[in-house]
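Schema walk-through. Below, the input block comes first and the output block second. Nothing else is stored per chain. Lengths vary across the set, and this one has 236 residues.
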Amino acid sequence: MSAASLPILITGAGQRVGLYCAERLLDEGQPVIISYRQERDSIARLRERGAIALQADFSDEAGIMRFIEQLRSQCRGLRAIVHNASQWLAETPGAEAEVFRQLFTVHMLAPYLINLHCSELLLQSEQADIVHVSDDVVRKGSANRSAYCASKAGLESLTLSFAARLAPRIKVNGIAPALLMFNAGDNEAYRAKALEKSALGIEPGPQAFYQSLRYLLDNPYLTGTTLTLNGGRHLK
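--- output ---
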């Protein structure tokens, strides 16, 4: 089936980079399915533009499987799956195990189960891709966010495993971004310190991520690769 006629699934597309990518794909006439945790004005806007929006709870296996059933009932095939859903949780004293469990479930178990149960949807497309969204912090580890870092590192391992498992019909790659866009409440001191961490020293915006996503979707000779999108942080 023509790739252009089948939707691209983006998980966690209610805000920031996921929302931007969904909007850009819709601008290009690409059908889109998104998952979201809570209702926002942005979700209503995407629905108005023709996106299929499915509420999803990736906090446990049952919620993930419910989402998969919803997805399978909504489409006959998929052009791509972009695993963008993420949580940024601190390891508070006394709650470390629960935080680790939540991060593992969202960052690893959800992509793992969705890939397993939805690969046949991807096989309906002439071109098919899975894209895992990791984090540049995996490159060096994190003293303060070790559970977050470990779960994203596990996602990068899944990129390699599924690339081998699903080749040659489905390409599986990843993107590992560092700072892309600040939050509205970030003060000038924080912004300056964050920009100093990279060689290029800029806030590139979500379009830099979309360009990387577009590259992975369009390149027919790339699988098992994670693109580093960090402005040269590894050079500092």
